[in-house]
C-alpha cells in the first residue's frame, strides 16, 4: 500500500504549521462543524494520486482524460450520501497529506492505509477495502518462483517508501530490494530483466497482468497486519461529525461488498479499453495539453521573472541612505536564498505555504514559484549586464540633465539587455525544461501528461521518447527564434 | 559688472588619501572662454567634473548662477546640469541609437520637447556641425572627428549656458583635430561661455580669454593667453611649457 510521505514534505508541512499556528491544531480544538461546513459548501474536494490502477488512474472517457478507478466510485458514493458534489484534485501521493492539512482538499481517497503514524495527523474512516500483496514476474519465469522466499539471490522491486517495499526488505533473505518511485518504471525494469519480481498490491498486480500477456502474478505471502493492507478515507483531524457520517457510507459499502461487486469491475473496464489503443498518437491530446501548459508556465515565468529580475538588480545596486542600504541587503539575501535552495522545494512552499493564506490554484502557484526563482537568476545576469556598460554612458546621460532613473531606463538598460540577451535566452530555454518541476503539484504539463500516459498504457519507454522529442522541438525552436532576434539586434 | 556664471570657492576633492583638488577659488563670467592647461594627473578632469557634480566635492562650494550645487537635492542638480553641456574625451555617444536619436533623447525625455520640434532642432544642430547627412547613421560608423562633433551637437540640444570640454581632441587622429576645434571656435565666437581642458596650445592662444594653469591640485596661474605664454610666472608653468613647445 502507498505509505510514502516524503521527508521533504513532512518538513515543509512542519514549517508551514510553525509559521501558521492556526493550522489544523485549532481545527481539532474548535467546535466540530466539519459536516455542516461541507454541506453548506455543497462541494467535497477529493485528493488523489491517479497513478495507481485500479484504485485510481487516468483514462480517456468520451475523448477526455478523466480520473477513474474504484476510489473514485467510493468518492462519488460518499459525496452522494452527503448530498454534495464531488470534485477531484490530482496530485502526487507525497503531496496529499499536506494538501489535506492546508485545506487544499477535504479528503483523501488514494489507496491510503491508516497507519498509526498517519493517524497522528489525520482522521481516518473505517477501512473500505482489505487488500493483499502479489509479486508480478515475467511469465517465462513462472516455474522458477512461488512466493517471496523464491527470490533468494535475486532482485525484487517495489515502490519506494511503500509498505510492500519495507516488507520486501524485512521479510526476505539474500534478496536485493530495489526501490523506484513509479509502478510503470518497475514493470519496465522487470521486463528488461533488471528485476526478477515486483511486489505490489493485488488489484494492481491483477491489472498489470491482465493487460500484459508477458506478465504473471504469484502470491507474496508477506506477513502483514491488517492495518497495513487496508485502505481508508482520510479527513482533517477533529472532523468527527464528518467522519461519523462517512463511516455509515463505508459500512454500507463493506456490507454490500460494493468494491468487489461493482467498483473493481467498473475500474477494470477502463483498463481494458485502455489497452486497445496504446499508440502514442492516440494520446496526442494529452501531449498537446502538456505542451500548452509547459509553454504557459514558461512564457509567464519568463515575463514575470524578467520584471522581478530588473527590480532585484536595481535594488542590489542601490546605495546611499539607510533605506537604500536595507533594500540592497534584502535583495542580496533574497537572491542568495533562492539560488541556495532547490526549485522543487520553492514550488511546494508556494503551493502549500502561501496556500494557507490565499487559495492559489496549482498552475498559479507554479508560475509564481518559478517566476520568483527565475527572477533571482535573471537579476544576476542583469546586474552583470549593467556593469558591462561603460561608465561614460552614464556620465554622458547625467551631464545632459537626465535623472538616475531616466539614465537607467533609456541609456543603460537597453545596452545591458543587448549584452545579456544570450544569457536571457538560455534562461528561457532552461525554464522550458525546469518547468517540469511543477508536475509534483499536479499541473498538467508535459512530464505530468507523460506519467499519465505511462500509467494509462503500461508502456514505459514510448511516452518518455515522445516527450523527449517534444522538449527538444520546443527548446530548438525557441533557440532558433532567440538567435534570429539576436542577429536582428546586432544589425541595429 | 556682470555676475559670474560659475563660482568656485575653496573647492577640494580627495579620493581616499589622495587629495586631488586643494581649495580652488575661481570664477567664470558670462561669455568667457577659459582654457585649462597643465600636466596630466594634475586634477583638470576632476575639477571639470566637480563643476557639474559628476564628481561630488569633498568640501567647498560650486555655485551656478548663484545657486550652490553642493547643498542642492538631486532634482535641483539634475536641472542645473541641463544648463551645463559636457563633452568628453571618449565622445560617449549612445551606441544603440542613431545620431539623430542621440541628440533628441535628452530634450524629449528631460524637457518634454515634442518629437517634431526635437527632430527639427536636431537637424539644425547637425547642420551647424556639418553632419546633417549622417543623421540616421549609428555612432559606430562615424570617424572620431564626426563622433565628437555629434557629441557637441547633442550637448547643445539642451540649450546650455555653459559648455565644459574635457580634452575633446585628445582621442582623435591628428587630421581630425581641426574639424572639432573649428566647431568649438565658432561656438566661442557666438558668445558661448566655455571651460575647455586641452593640450591644443594654438586653440588656447587664439580663442581663450583666460588661461588657467593647473598642477598639483590647484590653479597656479590665471592670466590672459598673451601674458601666460610670454611670461609664465611659476617654475611649474615654465617647465610645462618648455616640454610642450619643444
Ligand atoms: N575616480 C577616481 N578614483 C580615484 N582616484 C582618481 C579618480 N579620478 C581621478 N583620480 C586621481 O586623481 C588625480 C587627478 O586625476 P585627473 O583629474 O584625471 O587629472 P588630469 O585630468 O589633470 O589628468 C590622479 O592622480 C588620478 O589618479
Ligand atoms: Mg584628464
From TrEMBL, chain A:
Location of the ABC transmembrane type-1 domain: 291-482
Gene3D superfamilies recorded: MetI-like, Periplasmic binding protein-like II
Membrane topology annotation: Multi-pass membrane protein
UniProt keyword terms in alphabetical order: Amino-acid transport, Cell membrane, Membrane, Signal, Transmembrane, Transmembrane helix, Transport
Subcellular location: Cell membrane
CDD domains reported in the protein's UniProt record: TM_PBP2
Main localization (coarse): membrane
Signal sequence region: 1-30
Regions that span the bilayer: 293-315, 349-372, 461-482
Highest taxon listed in the record's lineage: Bacteria
Family: Belongs to the binding-protein-dependent transport system permease family. HisMQ subfamily.
NCBIfam families: HEQRo_perm_3TM
PANTHER family: GLUTAMINE TRANSPORT SYSTEM PERMEASE PROTEIN GLNP, MEMBRANE COMPONENT OF AMINO ACID ABC TRANSPORTER
Name this polypeptide is given: ABC transporter substrate-binding protein/permease
Organism of derivation: Lactiplantibacillus daowaiensis
UniProtKB/TrEMBL annotation, chain B:
Top-level taxon of origin: Bacteria
MF terms in GO: ATP binding
Keywords, alphabetical: Amino-acid transport, ATP-binding, Cell membrane, Membrane, Nucleotide-binding, Transport
ABC transporter domain ranges (all copies): 6-241
Primary location class: membrane
Subcellular localization, as worded in the UniProt entry: Cell membrane
Family per record: Belongs to the ABC transporter superfamily.
The protein's name in its UniProt record: Amino acid ABC transporter ATP-binding protein
Amino acid at each position: 500500500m502507498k505509505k510514502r510521505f516524503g521527508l521533504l514534505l513532512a518538513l515543509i508541512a512542519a514549517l508551514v504549521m510553525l509559521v501558521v499556528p492556526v493550522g489544523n491544531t485549532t481545527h481539532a480544538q474548535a467546535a466540530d462543524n466539519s459536516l455542516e461546513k461541507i454541506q453548506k459548501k455543497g462541494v467535497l474536494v477529493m485528493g488523489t494520486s491517479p497513478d495507481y490502477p485500479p484504485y485510481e488512474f487516468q483514462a480517456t472517457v468520451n475523448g477526455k482524460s478523466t480520473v477513474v478507478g474504484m476510489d473514485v466510485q467510493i468518492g462519488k458514493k460518499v459525496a452522494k450520501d452527503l448530498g454534495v458534489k464531488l470534485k477531484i484534485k490530482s496530485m502526487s501521493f507525497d503531496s496529499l497529506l499536506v494538501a489535506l492539512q492546508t485545506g487544499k482538499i477535504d479528503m483523501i481517497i488514494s489507496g491510503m492505509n491508516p497507519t498509526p503514524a498517519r493517524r497522528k495527523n489525520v482522521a481516518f474512516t473505517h477501512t473500505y477495502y482489505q487488500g493483499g500483496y502479489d509479486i508480478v514476474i515475467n511469465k517465462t519465469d513462472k516455474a522458477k518462483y512461488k512466493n517471496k522466499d523464491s527470490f533468494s539471490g535475486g532482485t525484487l522491486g517495489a515502490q519506494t517508501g511503500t509498505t510492500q517495499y519495507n516488507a520486501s526488505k524485512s521479510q526476505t533473505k539474500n534478496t536485493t530490494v530495489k526501490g523506484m518511485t513509479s509502478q510503470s518504471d518497475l514493470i519496465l525494469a522487470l521486463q528488461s530483466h533488471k528485476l526478477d519480481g515486483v511486489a505490489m498490491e493485488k488489484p494492481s498486480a491483477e491489472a498489470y497482468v491482465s493487460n500484459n500477456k508477458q506478465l504473471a502474478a504469484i502470491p507474496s505471502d508477506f506477513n502483514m497486519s491488517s492495518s497495513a493492507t487496508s485502505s481508508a478515507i482520510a479527513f482533517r483531524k477533529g472532523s468527527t461529525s464528518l467522519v461519523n457520517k462517512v463511516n455509515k457510507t463505508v459500512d454500507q459499502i463493506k456490507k454490500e461488498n460494493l468494491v468487489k461487486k461493482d467498483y473493481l469491475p467498473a475500474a477494470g473496464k477502463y483498463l481494458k479499453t485502455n489497452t486497445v489503443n496504446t499508440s502514442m498518437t492516440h494520446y496526442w491530446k494529452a501531449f498537446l495539453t502538456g505542451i500548452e501548459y509547459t509553454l504557459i508556465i514558461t512564457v509567464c515565468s519568463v515575463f514575470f521573472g524578467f520584471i522581478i529580475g530588473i527590480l532585484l538588480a536595481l535594488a542590489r545596486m542601490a546605495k546611499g541612505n539607510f533605506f537604500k542600504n536595507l533594500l540592497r541587503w534584502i535583495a542580496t539575501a533574497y537572491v542568495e536564498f533562492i539560488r541556495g535552495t532547490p526549485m522543487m522545494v520553492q514550488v511546494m512552499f508556494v503551493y502549500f505555504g502561501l496556500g494557507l493564506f490565499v487559495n492559489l490554484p496549482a498552475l498559479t502557484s507554479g508560475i509564481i514559484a518559478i517566476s520568483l526563482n527565475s527572477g533571482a537568476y535573471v537579476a544576476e545576469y542583469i546586474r552583470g549586464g549593467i556593469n558591462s556598460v561603460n561608465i561614460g554612458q552614464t556620465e554622458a546621460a547625467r551631464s545632459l540633465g537626465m535623472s538616475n532613473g531616466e539614465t537607467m531606463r533609456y541609456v543603460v538598460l537597453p545596452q545591458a539587455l543587448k549584452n545579456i540577451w544570450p544569457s536571457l535566452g538560455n534562461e528561457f530555454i532552461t525554464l522550458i525544461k525546469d518547468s517540469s518541476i511543477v508536475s509534483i503539484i499536479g499541473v498538467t504539463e508535459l512530464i505530468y501528461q507523460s506519467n499519465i500516459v505511462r500509467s494509462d498504457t503500461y508502456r514505459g519507454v514510448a511516452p518518455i521518447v515522445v516527450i523527449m522529442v517534444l522538449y527538444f522541438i520546443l527548446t530548438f525552436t525557441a533557440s532558433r527564434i532567440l538567435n534570429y532576434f539576436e542577429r536582428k539586434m546586432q544589425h541595429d | 559688472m556682470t555676475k559670474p556664471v560659475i563660482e568656485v570657492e575653496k573647492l577640494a576633492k580627495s579620493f581616499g588619501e589622495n587629495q586631488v583638488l586643494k581649495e580652488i577659488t575661481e570664477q567664470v563670467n558670462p561669455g568667457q572662454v577659459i582654457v585649462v592647461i597643465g600636466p596630466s594627473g594634475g586634477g583638470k578632469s576632476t575639477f571639470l567634473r566637480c563643476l557639474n557634480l559628476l564628481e561630488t566635492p569633498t568640501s567647498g562650494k560650486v555655485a551656478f548662477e548663484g545657486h550652490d550645487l553642493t547643498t542642492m537635492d538631486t532634482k535641483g542638480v539634475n536641472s542645473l546640469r541641463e544648463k551645463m553641456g559636457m563633452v568628453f574625451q571618449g565622445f560617449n555617444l549612445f551606441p544603440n541609437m542613431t545620431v539623430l536619436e542621440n541628440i533628441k533623447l535628452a530634450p524629449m525625455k528631460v524637457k518634454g520637447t515634442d518629437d517634431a520640434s526635437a527632430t527639427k532642432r536636431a537637424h539644425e544642430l547637425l547642420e551647424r556641425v556639418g553632419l546633417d547627412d549622417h543623421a540616421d547613421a549609428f555612432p559606430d560608423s562615424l570617424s572620431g572627428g564626426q563622433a565628437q562633433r555629434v557629441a557637441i551637437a547633442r550637448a547643445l540640444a539642451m540649450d546650455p549656458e555653459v559648455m565644459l570640454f574635457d580634452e575633446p581632441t585628445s582621442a582623435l587622429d591628428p587630421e581630425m583635430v581641426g574639424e572639432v576645434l573649428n566647431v568649438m571656435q565658432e561656438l566661442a565666437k557666438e558668445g558661448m561661455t566655455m571651460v575647455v581642458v586641452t593640450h591644443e596650445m594654438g586653440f588656447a592662444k587664439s580663442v581663450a580669454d583666460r588661461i588657467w594653469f593647473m598642477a598639483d591640485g590647484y590653479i597656479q596661474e590665471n592670466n590672459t593667453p598673451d601674458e601666460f605664454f610670454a611670461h609664465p610666472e611659476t617654475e611649474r608653468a615654465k617647465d610645462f611649457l618648455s616640454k610642450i613647445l619643444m
